[in-house]
Design a protein that fits this description.
The chain is α+β, with helices and mostly antiparallel strands. 26% of the residues lie in helices and 31% in strands. The strands form two sheets. Strands 1-5-4 form a three-stranded antiparallel β-sheet, with no helix packed on it. A hairpin with a 5-residue loop joins strand 2 and strand 3. It is flat and about 70 Å long. The N and C termini lie far apart (63 Å). This is DUF4369 domain-containing protein.
């Protein structure tokens, strides 16, 4: 009986630690806004790519609306925020088109 309880506890602990490990790598996001330089107005149709230090594209926005969050600031201006998932912590170059 004692062995069965220990095996159950070990299996439960292993599955919890694996689930937490996956959650950490799936929840790294880069948030921000893309604005036009002169007028400081938001650009709605920008695509964003994250490039790692080796020059590989590791993540990009798939469609125009998929990663956007809309809001209104205190002055009544529309805010468009982008969210881009990256696989790991590290240094990335963001390419905005």
């Amino acid at each position: 009986m004692k062995t069965l309880i220990l095996l159950t506890f070990f299996a439960l602990y292993s599955s919890i630690s694996i689930a937490q490990q996956k959650e950490k790598t799936d929840s790294i996001y880069i948030h921000g806004r893309v604005v036009e330089k002169l007028s400081n107005r938001p650009i709605e149709d920008a695509s964003i790519m994250a490039i790692n230090t080796q020059g590989d594209i590791v993540s990009s926005t798939k469609t125009v609306d998929y990663y956007k969050l809309y809001g209104v600031d205190g002055r009544g201006d529309i805010l468009i925020e982008f969210s881009l998932a990256v696989p790991n912590f590290g240094n990335y170059t963001l390419l905005v088109q």
